[in-house]
Amino acid sequence: MQRVLSFQMARGFSESSEFVTKRMCFSFIFSVGFLCLLCGFLLGRFATQRAIEFRAEKKRLEFAGNGLENTEHLQHLLHEQLERAPLDPDFETKWELFNVGENDVRRVNGILSNLSFIHKIVEHESYIAAIARGSREPDRYVVLSASGEGVGIVLELAKTLNHIQGEHRWKPRRSIIFCLFSGSSNPCSEILSTFMRNKVIAYVVIHHQALQGRGPFIVSGSDIVQSVVLESAITVKNWLSHNSQLLSLNSVSHNVTISRLTLDTPHVVLSFMNNNSTYTENDHERELRKIILAQVLGQTIWKLSECLVIKWNPSYFNETVSTALGFINNTELVETKVKIQQTVVKLLNNIKLLNEKIDTIDNISTLEIRILNDFLMDLDRALLCPDNKLQSRTNWSEFLRLSHEPFNIISMYLNEMVKCYEIAIQLLQDR
After folding, report:
1. Between 242 and 151, where is the model more confident?
2. 242: DSSP letter
């Protein structure tokens, strides 16, 4: 009996030991599995949080500086390459004299066709248009129109942008249309369909004798696009602080005496003012003017095609109005003068409110950006206020030409201006 009990007890101890070992193994496995699940959950949560933070940082960088800050190094590269670019004088002479033959048009077509930056080319006997398709807003257009002295500059700009795209995988946000023409009339605005014309953010023109003037660099055109060019010129001037030769010629002004184009599209004209000086100009000075024009044009096109919101800095507009109204000395026009001053103040206050709202935006979709820019371009059209002949009714250069007319004619013109500005104010208030 004792032997039997001893055997059973030994057997029990063996089974108990085996049972404990299995239980411990299962417990260990379950513990490890639970820890793995917990670690996986925490790791996934961490990765998700980091992804959210990364997207937020990417969005912040995208919005920094109105969408221009993260490409500032490319803008510097653009200016450096345009400063060294061999701007072709052969094109200038032929296109300036409207002596363009079929071979010249074919040569330009060949240059543009070799650029991967260009997606489509339309050729005509009097013009050639090349389209660089935008990456995010391809159906919004910045049109660059040039003839004569501007042809070589525009070609170099297109080649430089193509190089930046190839080396840095950059693409413009909006589509860019390069239109080079020969002849006394500019066909570039006419080749745009009605549908496309309504989607033109800005129409930028390099006059065929843009380099002939030896005075300051001047800008004329619709109010919003004109302010963009003037700010671009200041940016170029600041970046050229190392080059005293370029700075000496880079005085900038928005001239009240330069008339706007007969166009209902937001536009601007770039050139140098003719100061009627008689001194003999050397090739070096002309080359410097060419570099300045190329760099201001490059910065303007970059800004118009890349910035998120094409904001309006109304300080230039305010200065223009103040300068023009300073010429009114007739006591019979005092009431009209006060009326337009009050209307302009009201307009500027509404613009200030709009800009404050734009500055507080920290997250906006592509659709919202498009809607906002479309509104600003509608505002620029309202400020142009074209008549049935596409003559701007808020053209202060025309007002100055009327300075010797009877006061009732001047008063009528100013009252039309007031109506135009009131429409713009209503547009701002209805938004």
Report:
1. 151
2. T
Tell me the three state secondary structure of residue 390.
coil
> Regarding predicted confidence, which is higher, 186 or 184?
186
d(CA 220, CA 398) in angstroms, rounded, equals 13
For residue 401, give both structure tokens: 């030409």
Place of tokens 């946000």: 173
d(CA 11, CA 21): 16
- Report the SS3 class of residue 329: coil
Terminus-to-terminus CA distance in the chain, angstroms? 105
Taking the C-alpha atoms of residue 23 and residue 15, their distance in angstroms, rounded to an integer, is 12
137-146, strands of its sheet edge to edge: 120-123, 127-132, 174-181, 137-146, 200-206, 267-272, 217-221, 252-254
Amino acid at 12: G
pTM of the full predicted structure? 0.82
For residue 122, give the H/E element and its range: strand 120-123
> Given CA atoms 255, 256, 262, 268 in this order, what sign does their dihedral have?
positive
Q: What is the C-alpha separation between 30 and 52, in angstroms, rounded?
A: 33
What is the phi/psi pair of residue 199, to 5°?
Answer: -110, 15
Given a cut of 60, whether residue 53 has pLDDT beyond it is: no
**Cβ proximity of 106 and 315 under 8 Å:** no
Note the pLDDT of residue 5. Answer: 45
Mean pLDDT across 317-338: 88
Question: Cβ distance 414 to 333 under 8 Å?
Answer: yes
- What is d(CA 376, CA 220) in angstroms, rounded to the nearest whole number? 18
The model's pLDDT over 395-409, given as tens digits with 9 standing for 90+, comes to: 998 888 887 888 888
CB contact set of 310 (below 8 Å; sequence gap of 6+)? 201, 202, 224, 225, 228, 304, 373, 376, 377
Name the DSSP letter for residue 181.
E
Position 278 scores a pLDDT of 56
Backbone angles phi, psi at 35, to 5 degrees: -65, -40
H or E segment and range at residue 245 = helix 244-249
Could you say which DSSP state residue 416 is in?
A: H
Q: What is the mean pLDDT of residues 352-368?
A: 82
Question: What sign does the dihedral 124-127-130-136 (CA atoms) show?
Answer: negative
Residues facing residue 351 across a β-bridge: none
40: three-class secondary structure by DSSP: helix
User: Six-digit token pair at 289?
Assistant: 């003017």
Q: What is the pLDDT of residue 341?
A: 94
Q: How many residues does the chain have?
A: 431
Asked if pLDDT for residue 309 goes beyond 80, the answer is yes
- The amino acid occupying position 227 is S
